[in-house]
Structure formats: structure tokens, C-alpha cells
């Protein structure tokens, strides 16, 4: 997936707030969350976080 040009990168704190989890949860699950490492800084593309959530979303069973 290509990053949108006007898409603002998110910080660890912003992703934690968006997912309503502690920042420590983000660090523990970095292997599952698409991220960009800029030196010592981690940044996240909102569209990639949304795509990850879409994949993890549980679908209700049909009939």
C-alpha cells in the first residue's frame, strides 16, 4: 500500500490513543503493527494502522 501524500504520520502515543491501549502495548506488539523507524523515532501511517485493524476484525459467523 502506498502512503497518501497528505497523510500525517502518527506517533506511538497517537496510535495508542487511536487504538485505546497503553503505549506499552504498542511497543510489545510492534511486530504486528506496520511502522517506520526514523532513527530512534517510530512513526505509523494511519492508512496502514487502519488496514491492520481491518485484517484483525472478527467477522460474525453466518447462519
Could you characterize what this model shows?
The protein has about 60 residues and is mainly α. It has helices spanning about 10-20, 25-30, 45-55, and strands at about 35-40, 40-45. The chain has one domain. The chain is built from three helices and two strands, in the order H-H-E-E-H. Strand 1 and strand 2 form a beta hairpin. The model has no long low-confidence stretch (mean pLDDT about 90).
How far from one another are the termini? 34 Å
Low-confidence stretches: none
**What would you call the structural class?**
mainly alpha
- Main-sheet strand order equals 1-2
- In the residues, how many domains can be counted? 1
Return Rg in Å.
13 Å
β-sheet strand percentage: 5-15%
Q: Which H/E pattern describes the elements?
A: HHEEH
Q: What count of helical segments does DSSP give?
A: 3
Number of strands: 2
The biggest beta sheet reads: 2 strands, antiparallel
Percent helix among the residues? 25-40%
Given the C-alpha coordinates, what overall shape results? Answer: globular
Mean pLDDT: 89
What characteristics describe this protein?
63 residues; mainly alpha; two-stranded antiparallel ribbon; 3 helices; globular
Brief summary of the model shown:
This protein has 63 residues and is mostly helical. 40% of the residues lie in helices and 10% in strands. It has one domain.
